[in-house]
Amino acid sequence: MKDLCDLKVHINGQHTFLLHQRILCSFSGRLKKMVKQERKRSQPKGSGLKITEFPGGPEGFELISRFCYSNGRIPMSPANVSLLHCGAIFLEMTEEFSTCNLLRQTETFLDGLFYWTWGDILTALKICETCLPIADSSGLLLKLIASLLAKISANSEVPLTVATQLPSSSSSCSSPDTSGFRCSSSTKTPETIKPLLLRIETIKPCFAKEWWFDDLTILGPNIIEKFMRNLEAYGTDNKNLILTRFLLHYLKAAAKKPSFDKLGYGGLADTAIYGVVLMGRSAFSCRGLLWVLRLVSGLGLSKECRCKLERLIGLMLDQATLDDLLVSGYDGVVYDVNLVLRLVRVFVSEREGGLSLQRMKKVGRLVDKYLGEISPDPSLKVSRFLGVAESLPDSARDCFDGVYRALDIYLESHPKLTSEECMRLCQCLNYEKLTLEACKDLAKNRRIPPGVAVQALAAQQSKLRIKSYIADGLDPAATPRLARCTAGAEAERISPELLDEKEKLKLNLQRMQNRVMELEKVCREMKGQMSKMD
Fold it and tell me: Taking every annotated instance into account, which residue ranges of this chain make up the domain BTB (predicted)?
């Protein structure tokens, strides 16, 4: 009975096995060497063998032990052959030590790999994650992936190797769930394949999910990386639309897992973005690209890939909606304002390339809506608000009422701003492009510095004077002397409505000037009192 437990084996620091030394050493060359080395050492007797990084951990070693105790026999299946094969390699269980060696038996079982079912291959690949280094170095992983690809090709309408980028730039899908994809074929597609591709494109929706996408989401990122490398589509080599779609689907599914750990997904995220950038606007809408950006932002995406993706989005910013831009921020900030600033800068930088005024004004309206949305955020800094408000040229807005409304909300939400900060914020307004209603509201708004209100009313009065000149057929650039000489005649010809508006503006302006004078008087009195105290 004592002989049955003469070998103690500690596996990966997780479990200790008490075994029969003669039985295990008769099948394993490595265990035999380790036992001999252990006898030569001056360690306490019975301390046992310590094995680290055993493939499959205690579960894998238990399978090996059962094989040895069953006189070299064990039922094999796709669920255990990966562990048995890697364990046999690790423990050197070759024919040199036993005619019924485990390594040859697993290799014989794996010879029938191409007759396995789809589920069997996935099961074996999933098990390989626990013994990946040996599975990879021994070629087992490559065999399983090759078999997986054979199954995909046999049950798909088009092989993965002929799916390439679109040559045209027609309209693109806009659903975030479909990522704005469309099917495509290369201009260099062999003639024998072109009819097949044409039939697929006419039958299958461009954004349809391939039948194998969901099944592969159970595999870890290391296995998927090997899958992509096997297809020569990893990193910058990714020029495949279907594989790009798969990676985005895989990353989306991975991010939803409760035990998700973003480590290990950076390479796959970069690979997906290389494919996305290559397809560009011919395969993606702006909304689809923003969805992609949200997806990969927390997956260790490289700075280079992020810049490429943001540039692609920025060039299409006029297609975005307010909801598209409301990306969650970091470090306590509600929205990622810096991202929007970078996108707007990219868009504006294209003015030299012939950017139309219509597109610019469309982005101007979008930015004004965005300003109104982010203004209540108490953590939004003055510099960030001004950055967004001043990110567009003056020509992008016909009216600055939207900017004023956003500014008013910001001032209300940030009551502790200094007078200097308030003055600086108001500099983002173009007073001449404010409507009369907005200017009236500004003049009565106690959150607006008095000096700003005076400037706004003066600009509005000047605008009305110019309108009256135009209405009378006069040159708006006429000298003040000419204006004074013709003042009486103008008053008779100006419409009653316009005259009424002018009178109101004059009255408001006079009130504001009186307010400024009163404030200056109070200030002088306070200075005098302070000098007396000194």
Answer: 5-71
Residue 9 DSSP SS3: strand
Give the Cα separation of 505 and 265 in Å (integer). Answer: 63
Residues 313, 298: Cα–Cα separation, whole Å? 18
How many residues are there in the chain?
Answer: 534
**CA-to-CA dists, residue 44 to 16, 40, 49, angstroms:** 17, 11, 12
Sheet with 49-51, strands from edge to edge, namely 15-19, 7-11, 49-51
Question: 522: how many CB neighbours lie within 10 A of its CB?
Answer: 10
pLDDT at 92 over 80: yes
**CA atoms of 526 and 37, how far apart (whole Å):** 95
DSSP codes, 59-111: HHHHHHHHHHHTTS-----TTTHHHHHHHHHHTT--TTT-TT-HHHHHHHHHT
- Quote the crossing angle between the two packed helices 266-279 and 221-230, to the nearest 10°: 40
Comparing CA positions, the residue from 464, 443, 419, 465 lying closest to residue 512 is 443
Residue 187, pLDDT score:
36
**Mean pLDDT value across residues 428-446:** 89
